[in-house]
Specification:
about 500 residues; mainly alpha; 2 domains; 3-stranded mixed sheet; 21 helices; globular; binds zinc ion
């Protein structure tokens, strides 16, 4: 092996390891900040965390990293790499190129504007005053457009932002997928709303003892395959999963006394994210590829477990007795009625509270708006009107206030454009993966009804989890399902499931 390559491999591995260590520490700090760090210390500690982030950024974009990548991406270098290092090099190269494209001044301007914009957004949302947020948001959109020019794109400006969350994703790929899903979902929703036999979910909003909710969560988590000796369940305002390393993957939930769904399905959702991270090949530790490969694939794992497993009839065939034992108010409610209750569909204003079916329509509203904003087809001042028009077109309802409409999400205030599509992508991936599992394990749902979750976790681990970020999302979905992403599987799944529940 050429001496130069030997040296570059050695230096790259050391750098990759240092960055991974610092990022793991940073992840632990995030968990701490969101699960009960004393408020008084937050401003001071944020500065310490800022210093750590700056150090990570320096390493990622260092001259040393640049030199290593140059050698290791050459034909001579590539020929000498093992699979793990080759994938780590590809990952770091992508990061390096993207970071290098953005001038330090623009980066700084974005960070400062995002932090100010958050305060303005909170005020505007609280007072239902879009005009208050408008100039701040307009500036953020302008900064995003400048960012896009730095990144560059081939067809659509929005592609440059999509790629940041889902490598390789473009408007040209998404448009047909989303159009198909949207059209079919809007039609199905109309049919469900006209059903003469719509289920009721009133029972889920009775009073549910919070300690019992917690007990039930801790009862089902290990059964689903979550290793509690390699994780823990905490409380936070916005539930999340946080990976420190494969032996330490933490999840959080939030408890509502008058809503059984919130912590129950929130916990199953985060468990899906955690199974992914706990299942990554330990040989990838301390490298760039030791985490899930993209936001969309991650979301596929959480939504698969939450909706396709956790909201299925067989799942409750197995768990309903235990749930009834925890909550006496369900004692006289037949399983069939409970199953229908947890699968009610209702157009609503708030995305994060939406059901499995209408959720995607909330994403479509945001996708269409972000795309048009970045393309310069619409301007920020038109957003409240356009938002309401799209809500009416897709969901058949118009928010009475902007607080319940265009101002509801935090994402735009910090410049998180391009992120929303990952949620619906997750659903699309999940349905396509379900189709493959059912082909390979024909008794998939009988296994669930018998509580045999190990087989399912092993399948996911073998086919998806263990690979971490070894493959791009495009490569992974083809490897797992044998074809590129297509909307047909999710459409079919939703139609079959909800036609039955609504007795169409
Ligand atoms: Zn999630």
């Amino acid at each position: 092996m050429p001496k130069e390559v030997v040296k570059a491999i050695e230096r790259f591995k050391e750098l990759d390891q240092r960055i991974s260590h610092f990022t793991d520490i940073s992840a632990l700090l995030d968990w701490d900040a969101n699960t009960g760090a004393p408020k008084k210390g937050v401003p001071m500690f944020s500065k310490a965390k800022g210093t750590l982030s700056a150090e990570i950024f320096k390493l990622l974009t260092s001259e040393e990293m640049g030199d290593c990548l140059e050698v290791l991406t050459s034909a001579e270098g590539q020929a000498e790499l093992d699979d793990i290092t080759r994938a780590a090099v590809r990952y770091r190269k992508r990061e390096y190129d993207n970071f290098k494209k953005v001038p330090a001044e623009l980066h700084k301007e974005l960070v400062i504007h995002a932090s100010n914009a958050h305060t303005v957004w909170v005020e505007a949302k609280q007072t239902n005053n879009f005009a208050h947020f408008e100039p701040t948001l307009a500036k953020m959109v302008d900064l995003q457009r400048r960012l896009i020019e730095c990144y560059g794109y081939e067809e659509h400006p929005y592609d440059a932002l999509l790629d940041g969350y889902e490598p390789g994703l473009t408007v040209a790929k998404l448009d047909p997928l989303f159009k198909d899903l949207r059209d079919k979902t809007v039609q199905l929703l109309k049919r469900l709303m006209n059903s003469k036999d719509r289920p009721s979910n009133k029972v889920l909003f009775e009073e549910y003892d919070v300690d019992k909710q917690k007990e039930f969560n801790l009862f089902i988590l290990p059964k689903l395959g979550y290793d509690l000796s390699a994780g823990r369940l905490d409380i936070s305002e916005h539930p999340f999963a946080q990976s420190i390393n494969t032996g330490d993957v933490r999840i959080t939930t939030r408890y509502k006394k008058n809503d059984l769904r919130s912590s129950l399905f929130g916990t199953i959702h985060e468990c899906g994210h955690a199974l992914y991270e706990q299942g990554i090949n330990p040989a990838f530790e301390e490298t760039a590829i030791r985490r899930g490969t993209s936001f969309g694939i991650h979301e596929s794992q959480s939504r698969f477990l939450e909706n396709m497993v956790g909201r299925s009839y067989p799942f409750w065939t197995y768990f309903y007795d235990d749930l009834q034992r925890h909550f006496p108010q369900l004692k006289n409610l037949p399983l069939e009625d409970f199953y229908r209750a947890i699968n009610t569909v209702e157009p609503s204003f708030i995305r994060v509270e939406a059901d499995e079916l209408t959720y995607n329509l909330h994403i479509m509203v945001r996708y269409e708006i972000e795309k048009a904003l970045m393309n310069g087809e619409i301007e920020v001042k038109e957003l409240p009107r356009i938002w309401n028009e799209k809500m009416e077109e897709y969901l058949g309802i118009v928010p009475p206030t902007d607080t319940l409409g265009v101002l509801q999400d935090v994402h735009w205030s910090f410049g998180g454009f391009g992120y929303f599509p990952s949620y619906s992508l997750g659903n699309l991936y999940a349905a396509q993966i379900l189709n493959t599992i059912e082909r390979e394990i024909p008794d998939f749902y009988s296994l669930i009804a018998n509580g045999e979750f190990a087989v399912i976790r092993e399948w996911l681990r073998e086919n998806i989890h263990q690979h971490g970020a070894m493959y791009t999302p495009d490569e992974l979905i083809v490897k797992v399902t044998g074809e590129e992403l297509n909307a047909e599987y999710l459409v079919k799944y939703l139609e079959e499931k909800y036609s039955k529940i609504y007795r169409l």
